[in-house]
Amino acid sequence: MSLDTPNAFADEENILLHTALFKQVSPTEAEELLPHLRRAVYDKGDYIFSEGDTDHRMYLLEQGRVKLIRTSSDDRVQLLSIHAPGEVLGEIPVFDPHGGPRTASAVAMSHGTRVVWLEHDALFAWLDEHPRVAIDMLQVMANRQRANNERISDLVFMDVPARLAKTLLNLGSRFGEPVEQGLKVPHDLTQEELAQLVGSSRETVNKALMDFSNRGWIARDGRSIIIFQPGMLIRRSRR
């Protein structure tokens, strides 16, 4: 990890203006937070924060990708989610500072992953000056809760191929790169991590991937997947 100087943020580089949490904030309002932002750069595999930490920081992902994981008492690891630039990480301790330690770890998935962070006290002092912004933040938090509820519902009501199809479509919409054959999705996940993201075993997910491939919907290319027929994946995700 390396730290940059706190105030080395040009106006056009203000990460706050590119995050959903601050999407309704004016540039002038956002500039008031610049002196309180801290930036850090991480290499692949570095921990940005760890399960059990007691800090009250909120992180904003500026560059790269980050995965959230939890570790069980017997050292099994569960992949919870993947986050892209412009997304917020670890906001719960900021909005619930007395709720206990962090319940997940954030790990950089690529070299040069860059984040900025903001302490609870600085954010809430700013919100006292701009209380309207808190309403916008509540809307973003509600959207996250809705997404979490949908994920829980998917685990209960959808079979593995449907969940896999939906996961591939989600990864494609967020990280996909158009290529001549279709949409290339560089997920950078091991087979075990992809299975964890779907919420199933590696063997079951591999079987579903093979089925999708045999049908001509997708092709596997290392730690990438090329989607040939997104419409078929959409149809399968709704069964």
Automatic annotation (TrEMBL):
SUPFAM superfamilies: cAMP-binding domain-like (SSF51206), Winged helix' DNA-binding domain (SSF46785). Residues 158-231 form the HTH crp-type domain. Keywords: DNA-binding, Transcription, Transcription regulation. Residues 21-110 form the Cyclic nucleotide-binding domain. InterPro entries: cNMP-bd_dom, cNMP-bd_dom_sf, Env_Response_Regulators, HTH_CRP, RmlC-like_jellyroll, WH-like_DNA-bd_sf, WH_DNA-bd_sf. GO terms for molecular function: DNA binding; DNA-binding transcription factor activity. It comes from the Bacteria. One of its GO terms (cellular component) is cytosol. This is Crp/Fnr family transcriptional regulator. It comes from Bifidobacterium callitrichidarum.
